[in-house]
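[job 4471] stage=fold_predict status=RUNNING
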Amino acid sequence: MASSDPPEIPDYKSEFLQSCLSANVLTFGNFTLKSGRVSPYFFNAGLFHTGSLLRSISTAYAYSIIDFLSRPESPPQEFDILFGPAYKGIPLACATVSALTALAPARFSNLSYSFNRKEAKTHGEAGSIVGAPLRGKRVMIIDDVITAGTAMREAIGIIEAEGGVLVGVIVALDRMERMPGGEEDRGSAIGEIRRRYGVPVLSIVTLDDLVGLLRGKGDEGDLKRLEEYREKWLASD
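[job 4471] inference complete, writing C-alpha cells
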C-alpha cells in the first residue's frame, strides 16, 4: 500500500530536523541501545556543541514551549525555572532561557535556570544546585530524551527535595517506544512520567516526525527499517 504524504510540520520542527541531519546528531544505520534493542536511528544531542547548533536546538525548544502554552486546550502552565539535569541538560537550560527571552521578552525576561551538581559542594555557597533556588518555584525540566525514565525520576527527586514544584518536562525527541519488558501493551517512559507525576511532557519532534522526514526526502531503506522498528516497539500510549 502506498504511503500517504507526510503531514505538514511547523517550520521550527523542520529546521531543527535539518540541523540534526547536517550535524549528524540524527543518523541512520544499526545501533545497539542500552536496552539491547537494535535501533535503525541514533540521536545524540551532545553534538549540538557549536554556537549555531546550540542556537538551533534552543530556539526549537523555545518555540515548542511557546506553542504548547498558546494552545487553547492547554492548562495554565506558567513556570519560574527551567531545570537542566547534569550534564547534557545544563547548556540546554541556559541557552533555552535565553531563546525564550529573545522570542517573548514580556513573558520570559524573568525566567531563571538551574542545574544540579553531581556531587554537592561543601564550601562557598555549598549545596547541589547552581542557579536559581528551587524552593517554592514552578519548575520545568529540559533534557534531550527519556529512554527508561531513570535519569528523569532522579531529576524530579532533586527538585522535590529542594522544595520545587514540577509543572512540566520538555525533551528534544519522543522515541514513542515502549519501555523494556515483555508486555506488548507496555507504555513509553514519557507516558509513565505523565501518569506518575501528572504533568505534561513535551517534545520538539517525535518518531512520527522522523518517519515523515524520510518519506519526504530520505532513503527508502532507512524509511522501511524505521517504519518496521516503529511497528515492532510502538508504545501503547
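[job 4471] summary: The CA atoms of residues 12 and 60 lie 6 Å apart.
[job 4471] exit 0
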